[in-house]
Specification:
The chain is 50% helix and 9% strand. The chain is of the alpha/beta class. The longest helix is centred in the C-terminal third of the chain and has 21 residues.
């Protein structure tokens, strides 16, 4: 084994394999030889042979911690979670008081989506070793995923007391406070983090989001600027200066879209004010938005992300504009519409909708793109099933992406799929313009409807994105939008029931008045506080 170790140190892996195999010819019970053989074969990417070697070592010595660790790693690389579970259960049978083995088994069940088993196993690990902070953290994550926030917070507080220097645990605790709607406590945690770590970008960004959610725009915008220093929100810089509010007359400015499609639609409203300051306005955005946003008031030229922009003097990201311009809750520029549908856009979708007369024509979106908060905001089509049966309404699906496949589970007579006709957001805007109402989760389609000044009902999770604020059913950003909020985490059924009542009232009013288009007055009339 000494010679095999020397070969390993200098990277002569084939020689390691040869040495170990020679040893095993004379001693087929040599755990160390099987383990070293597995390491060498693993490094050589000869995975089936490596697995066989590790497995042989495990059969000889099930208590060999390094063997279990390496075999687990090999199986993890192949995403073989069930096999990892079997391995760890076999190891636990030989070492029932090993808390770390149980902790790892709990992680496997978390990945498999079996939260009940994960909690049971993690609880056992903690009983064996109450100071295993990682197990407390994972318990917190499982509880959080089940909207059991009090239990999640208790687990994370315990983990934090055991591992006081672990900043990730503190950040996770603060986020859980946010998800639970306990913003005061979240802000206190973020402020403590910043006091100890003054340049922590995550804490500053999250603090900004909390303040914005509370309507404290003056306190929120400066902190929110820290997002541009985080790896997941950073916008690639250009060689020109950032605009900081100085005069723009005679200059060209590049506005850079960032984050999601909806963010770009919401904040392109500021192009009008920038244009009014005498600037030539170039917008950089993703191709799916370029045709629509080229029609936005104040935009002179659109360049697709990745293409070369015309010469410009200064630049700024779109979501930095309200901070530079000093936007407060009272001064949000909410004149709508501020985008127009391009000529000829969405012709086939428009024709499909236009042929349905004498009914309320409603567009539906139940899921957006996947990001950090998508678990809370996204729904499935079946959750809207009760709405589809309301007489006097024709539903049209504006849903795109993988989630559109859920239409296969619903009678096509109840909802028409427009996705084949929606190539970009200009086509989607044309469809929205033809509809009477849009019902959507928090996604880009809701923003497009609001920017077009079309009636839109947006379903908001209990812990909302900052832009929807708290305790109100309207939006200062979009006058024709009404918000339907979850009364508790995960509770969509009561939201759908409330929407069903409102839709039924609209159909009855349409029948009485003969109107086929929802006016702002009709929309407002049907929104008691919720």
């Amino acid at each position: 084994m000494l010679r095999a170790g020397m070969h390993f140190q200098v990277g002569e892996l084939d020689s390691v394999v040869e040495c170990c195999q020679r040893i095993l010819l004379f001693d087929d019970k040599h755990t160390g030889a099987y383990f070293s053989l597995g390491l060498a074969l693993h490094s050589l990417k000869r995975l089936p042979e490596a697995e066989a070697a590790y497995s042989a070592a495990f059969r000889i010595d099930p208590g060999h911690t390094k063997v279990v660790t390496q075999l687990t790693q090999l199986l993890m690389e192949q995403d073989r979670l069930a096999d990892i579970g079997e391995l760890l259960e076999a190891a636990i049978a030989h070492a029932p008081q090993d808390a770390l083995l149980r902790y790892n088994l709990g992680l496997v069940f978390m990945k498999l989506g079996d939260d009940d088993a994960a909690l049971r196993i993690l609880e056992t690990a903690i009983r064996i070793n109450p100071r295993l902070s990682e197990a407390h953290v994972q318990m917190g994550l499982v509880h959080s995923g089940r909207n059991q926030y009090d239990a999640a917070i208790a687990s994370l507080v315990c983990a934090m007391s055991l591992d006081t220097g672990n900043l990730n645990i503190v950040l996770r605790l603060a986020l859980t406070y946010v998800e639970a709607g306990r913003l005061t406590e979240a802000i206190a945690v973020y402020e403590r983090i910043i006091a100890a770590h003054p340049v922590d970008t995550d804490a500053h960004t999250a603090l900004g989001i909390c303040r914005l959610l509370l309507g404290d725009f003056r306190g929120g915008w400066p902190e929110y600027e820290w997002r541009l220093r985080t790896p997941y929100m950073a916008v690639p810089p250009t060689a020109v200066p950032r605009w900081k509010g100085e005069p723009l007359a005679g200059k060209t400015i590049l506005l850079l879209a960032e984050q999601g499609f909806g963010d770009a639609v919401q904040f392109i409203r500021y192009a009008r004010e920038i244009k009014a300051r005498g600037a030539t306005v170039i917008l950089g955005c993703r191709p799916a938005l370029s045709r629509l946003l080229a029609e936005c008031e104040g935009v002179d030229h659109v360049v697709n992300e990745g293409d070369t922009a015309p010469p410009f003097n200064v630049e700024i990201t779109l979501l930095s504009l309200p901070g530079v311009l000093g936007t407060t809750l009272e001064t949000i520029p909410a004149d709508v519409p501020y985008i127009r549908v391009p000529s000829g856009a969405g012709a086939r979708a428009v024709a499909e909708i236009a042929c349905c007369t004498g009914v309320l024509r409603v567009g539906l979106v139940w899921a957006g793109g996947f990001h950090t908060g998508s678990r809370h905001r996204n729904m499935v089509l079946q959750q809207f099933r009760d709405l589809l049966d309301i007489p006097g309404i024709k539903f049209f699906s504006l849903q795109k992406g993988e989630e559109a496949a859920q239409l296969a589970d619903v009678d096509s007579e109840l909802i028409t799929d427009l996705a084949p006709y929606l190539g970009d957001f200009a086509d989607t805007a044309a469809a929205i313009q033809t509809l009477d109402l849009v019902i959507s989760v928090d996604t880009a389609v809701a923003h497009v409807a609001g920017a077009l000044a079309k009636p839109v009902w947006t379903l908001i999770p209990f812990a909302p994105d900052w832009r929807w604020l708290l305790n109100r059913n309207d939006s200062p950003w979009y006058p024709t939008m009404r918000l339907f909020r979850q009364p508790a985490p995960g509770h969509w059924s009561s939201v759908i029931a409330h929407i069903a009542v409102q839709l039924t009232a609209l159909v009855q009013e349409q029948t009485t008045t003969g109107k086929t288009v929802i006016t702002d007055q009709i929309s407002l009339r049907h929104f008691p506080p919720y």
